[in-house]
Amino acid sequence: MTDRVAVLAHEMFPDRSKTANGVIRYADYEVAAVLDRERPGERVADHLPGVDDAPVVASFADVPGDVDALVIGIAPIGGGFDESWRPDVRAAIEAGCDVVSGLHYFLNDDEEFASLAADHGVELWDVRKPHDDLTVAGGRSADVDADVVLTVGTDCSVGKMTATMEIVEAARDAGIDACAIPTGQTGIMIEGWGNPVDRVVSDFTAGAVEEMILEKGDDHDLLVVEGQGSIIHPAYSAVTCGILHGAMADKLVLCHAAGREAIHGYEDTAIPPVEEYVDLYESLAAPVHEAEVVAGALNTVDVDDDAAARAAVDDFADTIDAPATDLIRFGADEVVEAIR
Amino acid sequence: MTDRVAVLAHEMFPDRSKTANGVIRYADYEVAAVLDRERPGERVADHLPGVDDAPVVASFADVPGDVDALVIGIAPIGGGFDESWRPDVRAAIEAGCDVVSGLHYFLNDDEEFASLAADHGVELWDVRKPHDDLTVAGGRSADVDADVVLTVGTDCSVGKMTATMEIVEAARDAGIDACAIPTGQTGIMIEGWGNPVDRVVSDFTAGAVEEMILEKGDDHDLLVVEGQGSIIHPAYSAVTCGILHGAMADKLVLCHAAGREAIHGYEDTAIPPVEEYVDLYESLAAPVHEAEVVAGALNTVDVDDDAAARAAVDDFADTIDAPATDLIRFGADEVVEAIR
Known about the structure:
Two copies of one chain form a homodimer. The first copy, chain A, is an alpha/beta fold and 340 residues long.
């Protein structure tokens, strides 16, 4: 694994740079700089409280000191490569850096990057490229010794990956041998392993989750599976459903963003009443494996003061009839208590 | 398109050769022979009433006359290539035949077959290889002029592809300009086009369906989308869910096999009461696009006499609170009436 990294987040840091933020917050990297050509001179810690600080710079050439890797920290809908990033990726490779990318577009399939990487002896790690031995699920995830918890959501970008990492950290702090099961690019970058479930052959969606659970499930007491999308997402529900049935979780943590009224990017699709999600997830899970929504994780990043956030959390808890909190704002203790 | 074909179905014809049977029954091919090494000397019409007859032979060398293509007519769970089929595929290519395959294993990636095919100037059509321009759904399928009907199922192999083709045929007979939207290998082989939705990148599952609906939806009055799997299938529910949300169907036809008690190949997963499927499909569809189960298609192939089959159909209709029939045994008129 690389140690010191620069994180590319042009024009999206910090509000639309989910991957960058996750890597900065949870991975074992030392972050040398964030690249955002719209914010040179700003500081990471100004935007992401509680993380190690680093400068925001305009391009790879401005990153201070040597770095081992450039991490592509943004993921546009569709997962394409933005050609405006090419000079930075080129510069990184020419400086002897590996490049880590979670895009659908594989850097290894890009002729210029592949050729440059070979010339400079660096690795292009396409996190979203699945391995070749995936297959269909066998319905066996419930056989493992560990308890399995799955984070599920009302929408994309409500904080499932964050909730997963926070729950694992808090569970470990409480003395539980917990392990994250990463299913998306950010989780995989943070953990250093995992199947990119949104990129596998659709028939193998549940199988890709099951493979990870069988691999880790007898070595830990608690697996926390990173959910994806939402079961009513017009584009991504397939992945959500495959993870739900592939994980065969005992317990679900429902993640939601306070104030979200429509599916992100699909404004014609309203967010249904939150209690409907509880029914949908539980009734859809049950024929394969009984699962219960035992806690809620409410993302109140858009709520200004703590009192209003606390009220929103209490309201959310009442609605789903289970303990809830904002894991970042108020800590994960209530959720850990609910899943243990 | 090819005209005269041989259909490979070794050791699986007719009870486990869904693809072969579909091609024989619905495609515009002339079937010269079915290959099944366990049934040489038998006749196709002995097993599949109402189709054009053809001999069953032990190997490609025994196919009478010249054929244009060999169709791989069986699809084991997982979609692998059975090495025992290699001599027949080799012989077909050497005889100048194209080979049509719906396996997950691509013939074009097989060094021997690719090289032989190049030498003999024949095409290997890997039906399940998706095209490169697929992307995420935009939630736009409901914008087309056509009514959209989707066949959904309680399990795999209950007759969704058959129901789709029978409904399209019956609708055309009733004067409706209907078009099938094929989503699986058999449907694509029959129709000669289509996206193999179970083989696309999981994030693009709904998008692959939407692409087809947008392509055909303003040229016809009725689209009948071929469903896949089941919304509670331990392995394949992701594909089912993606099709449900990608199609944005107005009406659903619920397909079931009389007497089925557990998910095919997953005996630990019981088939829930059929009315639960109605609730699950409708409640899962609604947040994206309201859909109603308006008819049922019961596969009574395992029921011996017509009276018992009629009773089973009536029972199924009562359970789902909608008209139902066995489309093969009793015709599709009731279903066409319900969806028009």
